[in-house]
Design a protein that fits this description.
The protein is α+β, with helices and mostly antiparallel strands. It contains seven helices and eleven strands.
């Protein structure tokens, strides 16, 4: 009788244990980020300020740029480097894209991809997978580097979620580490915070010319509108 009672207690305790957590897929992480992006305002200001931080041969390196809506840009490659004016418009796939065009991009994922695919482009600035129609890096550019409206950023996240083979490598500092295949041997690794709709860091460098190259280390990008231009 005592043994039976012990078994009964064990059964009851086991039945009250919480179920094992189900891993979140890479697709679901991006869809959650898409939902969050709809409700995150872009902010206001005179200059679109981008800060890129990466590991250089002599330690952490910082690159900054400040761009007006009409395409005037100032940049600083590394502190305490001087701020240099180098007029340059916003770019996507190596081709100029005006602020008004960014504002008018579709908020539907499929329409957004079709619009991107039909834009002028510089094939020399694009990765082979994007030239073949995957459009992964242009979508990431809209999410991380350009002053893209909230609804369009949301659509870019959703379109990225439809990329075949997206995987979630699990939680890391700053979010979930996602793996996005470009080919059999190349992949983009990026850490996404779905609640903030932010790519915390990625192994891809988006260049001022609107192109993209893979990096051996992670690059962190932060953006904001500001009224302050450093001297």
């Amino acid at each position: 009788m005592a043994v039976a009672a012990a078994v009964a207690v064990a059964v009851i305790v086991t039945s009250l244990s919480p179920p094992a957590a189900v891993p979140v897929s890479g697709r679901d992480v991006l869809l959650m980020a898409a939902t969050s992006a709809e409700h995150i305002p872009q902010g206001t200001g005179t200059y679109w300020h981008i800060t890129r931080t990466f590991q250089g041969p002599d330690g952490p390196q910082v690159q900054e740029s400040w761009t007006t809506r009409d395409g005037h840009r100032w940049s600083r490659d590394a502190a305490p480097g001087a701020v240099v004016e180098d007029p340059a418009p916003f770019r996507l796939m190596g081709a100029e894209i005006g602020f008004e065009e960014l504002e008018g991009l579709p908020s539907d994922p499929e329409e957004l991809k079709a619009r991107i695919a039909g834009r002028p482009r510089n094939d020399n600035a694009m990765m082979p997978a994007d030239r073949q129609g995957k459009l992964v890096t242009p979508l990431i550019t809209l999410i991380t580097d350009l002053p893209t409206p909230a609804q369009v950023r949301s659509a870019a996240f959703e379109a990225l979620a439809a990329t075949p083979g997206v995987k979630n490598a699990g939680p890391v500092e700053g979010g979930q580490e996602l793996l996005i295949p470009l080919s059999e041997s190349l992949e983009i690794r990026m850490v996404v915070d779905p609640e903030a709709a932010r790519v915390a860091r990625a192994n891809i460098l988006l260049t001022a010319e609107g192109g993209a190259v893979l990096s051996r280390s992670y690059i962190s990008v932060t953006t904001e509108w500001t009224d302050e231009l450093p001297r």
